[in-house]
Every structure is written in C-alpha cells, then in structure tokens.
C-alpha cells in the first residue's frame, strides 16, 4: 500500500479507508469498495464538472455535459487504472476484475474522506484532468434526432441477448428505426453502454451511408 | 430579488449570479439559467450523497442510490420550488414553465459560485434534506428482475407517442414482456421518466395481480 501511496502522491492518515477502497467483496465478508465507489463517483463528477464549467466560460450546458462524459466514462477511467497499476493492489479472491474503473471512483471516495475536497481535487487534476479530451458524442441523442427528422418515429432498442457468469455480464442490444432496413448492434457489460454502442453503429451507418 | 434572498436566508455578493440563475432563455438572448443548472445539479447530487453516506453507515450503495433519488428527483424539487415560491422570481417571456425543479438546481449553482461549499450545503440542508424520505423504488430494475426470473426475457420499452410544443414536451412509453399480456404505460416530459412510470405500472399490475 505504501507503494500505491507513493504512486498517487498522498499518504493516508486512516489506512483502513485505502484498504476498503481496494477490497473486492469476494475477498472479505465485511469489507467492500462499493460504498466508497458510490461516494467517489459523485465527487469525481462534480469536481470535473466544476473544473470544466470554470474553464469553458463561453460553452453551453450540452457541450459541458458531453465533455464531462469524456473524463468520467468507464473506458477512460479504466485506462487511468491501468496507467497507475491499481489492479495490482486490489484484494480479491480468484476474480477476473473487469470494471477496474470502479476502483478509481472508490479511491477518490477514500481520498475525500481522508483529506477533504482539496486532496480529492488534487488527485483528479493530476490523473484525470491532466490531458485534453474531446467532448464525447451522445449517439443516442443524435440517432433520436435523425430518426424523428427523417421518419417521424423513435428508434427502438431491444436487448437481444444476455450472458452472465459469476464475475462477468454481457448484453447485446439491437436498435432499429421503422422504415429503415439498417440495424445497429452493441455489446457491453451494461445495457446503457450497449445501447450507446448500438446507436453509434446505426448512426454511422446512416450518416456515412455504409 | 431581496425578497427571495430573505426567503432563502442568504445575501448574494454578486447579484448577477442570482439573476442568471432565475432567467429563462425566452427572456434574454445572453442570459440563461442553464449553465448554472448543469453546475447545481452536480453539487446537489454530491452534497446529498455525502450527507446520506455519513448518516447511513450501515447501508449499502443500492440503498444510498435509491434514497438519494428521493431527494434529487424532479417531482420533489418541484415541490420545494413551490414551497419557496421561486416561480414568482423567474424572468421569462410568456412561458408556461413546467420544469421549475431546474431553477432549484441553478439556484444551488449560483449559491456555490457566490459562497462556496458551505453556502450551498446550508441551503440543501435547510430546504432539501429537511425531512425524512423513503428510498425511491427503482421500478425498472424491479421489472427487469421479475421479467428475467419469470420469462427469461427483457422487458421491451417503446416510445409510442411524442407531443411537443414550444415550451412543453410529452412522451408516452409502453413496456411489454414477451409471453405476458399485461402492458405498462407511462406519460412524462422525459423518455427516462416515462419509462420509469411505465415500469411501475406494469410491475404493480404483475405483483398485485391487478
């Protein structure tokens, strides 16, 4: 744990918080990162939002929402988790942990409880906001607009497949627009993300005429 | 505006922030509450989340998420807006403003920018967290579980109708489960909320055997 404290540049006063943030429920009956993830998720969202709000004074709320998504989405947080090598510090029992992004959030929750807003903010500035990203396109909204404008109907999303084992879930979602033959498909570990992927695929097919 | 400051118990150093928070875009070309709503939405979510996290030390993240929803959902915030009479202070041009909840959020954004975390927190404790609420049931999750358990399929949501005029939107969503005759319908001004209402109706039909 000292090694991790060196990597993130912060020494915990209460080491138990750091331990809780990095404990998967498979490892312990009475310790889990999940409550801290609830907290850290909120704190990350807000501090990124405040930072972008102050930085982009001339941009509207849609731009800010999409740019915030770039910094708080699962895939970007997973990348940060990889860069910091946090996976090596997670305590678990024979689990193939896919959602490593959640441990960035639980770590932020622990940092906030141990050191307050400033400590959480410093971590987020150093490791999350430390590069320029483009706003994430909201493909569900784009597809909705396209569909209403061209066909006057709503896109229809349907979960066509779910696979789940003890440590992994996967959903396949299909999206269609009545009167259009093309179909979008998305595969992910949450329905929401699978819908987004499906919307992206169909939207690109329609607008790039694939 | 002095009257509103008296009601909420805070005097703004920068009165323009308060003005911005209460200006509908119909009223002005260069002033709108919407950026402050983006900010206030995040701050409200986080401060309610932190408060509940600390208050309910023995509860898990699902409980906290559902209880937080009770305090930050549209209908509850609308009620607070009514209680404080904020509608009387909103500047607009001939608009029938339905989403008054958004002005509670923009007000919180303005309070944060003017006075920092403490001022935003005081407002939220005095006017949002000042009563005990029950966790909001997540009917989409409940219906999903029911559907998978009893029929092995996913509920299917479909937007069947959209009405919109310049200051009002309305969606009707239908939800069905393959192999079950009953249908749930929901009507609201966002698709997400209409889906929730539809899920609630169908779930109650199925579990109360209506």
Strand content of chain A: 5-15%
Widest sheet, order of strands of chain A: 1-2-3
The secondary structure category of chain A is mainly alpha
Mean pLDDT, all residues of chain A: 93
Please write the string of helix (H) and strand (E) elements of chain A.
HHHHHHHEEEH
Overall body shape of chain A: flat
Biggest sheet features of chain A: 3 strands, antiparallel
Number of domains of chain A: 2
Write the CATH fold name of the largest domain in chain A: Ribonuclease iii, N-terminal Endonuclease Domain, Chain A
The CATH superfamily title of the largest domain in chain A? Ribonuclease III domain
| Integer-rounded radius of gyration of chain A | 20 Å
Oligomer: homodimer
- Name the CATH class of the largest domain in chain A: Mainly Alpha
* Biggest interface found: A-B, 24 and 24 residues
Per DSSP, the total helix count of chain A is 8
Give the tally of β-strands of chain A. Answer: 3
User: Which regions of chain A contain 5 or more consecutive residues with pLDDT less than 50?
Assistant: none
Distance between the termini of chain A: 50 Å
Give the fraction of residues assigned to helices of chain A. 55-70%
